[in-house]
Amino acid sequence: MFLHAELDGLPQHIGGVSIYDQSTAPGDKVRFKQILAMLEDRVHLSPIFRRKLAFVPMGLGRPYWVEDPDFDMEYHVRHIALPKPGDWRQLCILAARIHSVPLRRDKPMWEMYVIEGLNNIEGYPPNCFALLLKVHHCAMDGATGTQFMNIVHDLSPETKKVGKAPPWIVERPSKARMLGQAYFDAWRKPGEVIDVLKQAGPAFMRIRRGKKEQHFKSLEDKQTTRFQGKISHHRVVEARKFDFEEIRAIKNAVPGATINDAMLTIVAGGLRKYLDSKGELPDKTLVTGCPIDVRSPEERAAGGNMVGFMNVALRSDIEDPVERLKAVHEESQSAKAYAEALGPRFVVDLTDVMPGNVLSLAIRTAAATGLSEAGVIQNTIVTNVPGPPYQLYMCGAALVDAISLGPLLPNVGLFHIVYSAVQNKKGSINLSLTACRDMLPDPDFYADCLQASFEDLRAATAKKKKPAAKKKPAAKKKRARRKTA
Q: Residue 295: pLDDT above 90?
C-alpha cells in the first residue's frame, strides 16, 4: 500500500532526527568512521540494512525483498553539517528538505545523515551532533523502528561488539521464477478473497450490533480544513518536548484516561488555536487517524510493516480543556470498540488481496480528483510510538533528544508523532509534526499553539485536582457546668 501511495511529491518514508551529547563519549568526540564501523559490525542484525526491492516483470505480482549484492554502507550513510550559527530553525529546515526527497527503489530503501554544527540550540549541551534516519514505510513502521533503534544503540557509553556475522547469502530471483510465482499467487488469490469475505460478514454484524448497543458511533460529520487538498513537494518540520510526569498527572485527572488521550487532547487544542487564529475553525469536531500495530508476536521479529487504522474524533469543538479530555477519552474508547468489531487486520488483509495496479489506480484517482477530500475521513494523523524506557548511547554519545518524521497521505497534509522515551536520563514525550509547507507556512507558530494547548490543559487539570479550602467550623460555646454541692 505504501509503495502504491507514493505519488509525485508524496514520498512514503518515515524517519527521525536523534541528537547526541559527545561529552559522554571517550575523548569527548565521536568520529564519522566510528559510526560507520559500528553499523558495519551490526549490519546483519536487521534485514532493513541490505535488502532491496525486486519487481516482477510487467507488474504481474507483488515485489520481493532480496539481498542487494552491491550494498555499499557509505552510500547510505552521509556526513554533513549545519551552516553557522547552527540553530534549531536551521536543523528543522534541513530535516524537512532531506525528508521531502524520495528514496531510490533500486537500492535498500534507507538513508542516514550524520549532521554536525549544532552549536547554537538552546537547551542542548555544546558540541552535539545529530543523526537523521529515513526508511521507506513499506520496510518499517513505528514498532519495527523502535527495534531498529535498539540495534544501532548501546545501553552504556561502551560500544559493544556483537560477534561474528553469519555468512551473507545473496539470492538473485530470475524473471522466470518471479513470473512463475506470480502465476501460482494468482491461483491462490480467489481463496484469499473468499477468506476476506468470510471475515466481512461477521465484522458487519458486530458493527451493526455495536451501533445498536451504543458501544461506538459512526463519525458522520466530516469537516474539511486547510490540511485537506493537493500536497506540494515541500515539507516543514517542528517539535515540542513535554515532561512525562506532567503528562501522566494530566491524564490522571480524568478516570480511565490514557497518555494517548492526553496527547490527542493537546493536538486538538493546538489545532483549535491555530485554525481559530486564521478564522478557519470548523463548528464541528475534527477527526484524526491513529495507526495501530496489528502484527502477532510471531511476526514482530520479521520487520516490515503491518499497520491498521482507527479514527478518533478530536473534539476540537470543545473549548474547555478538561471537558475536551473527557470527551476525547470517550471517543478513543468508541474508536477502539469499532476497530475490534471490524477486526484489527481486516483492512490489512483487504489491501493484500487487491491487485497492485487496482490499488495504485484507486489511490492516484482519489489524490488527483479530490474524491477523498469531498468525503474526508481524517483531517490529520496522530501516531503514538513508544520508545525505549532507558538511556541510549551511540558510539559513547548519550541520546538527549529526538524529532520524529512522518509521511503525508493523499489529502492529509499534517502528520503528528508522539514519541515517549528516556532521553538524558529523564522521561519525556516529544510531539513532532511534519506538514506540507503550502498548508502550514508557519510551523513555529503552530508548535507554539501546541505548547499553549499543553499549558492550558496542565493548568486546568491542576486546578481540578486541587481540593477546595474547607471552612473552619464555628467554635461551639461550651456550656458552663454546674458545680454540685
A: no
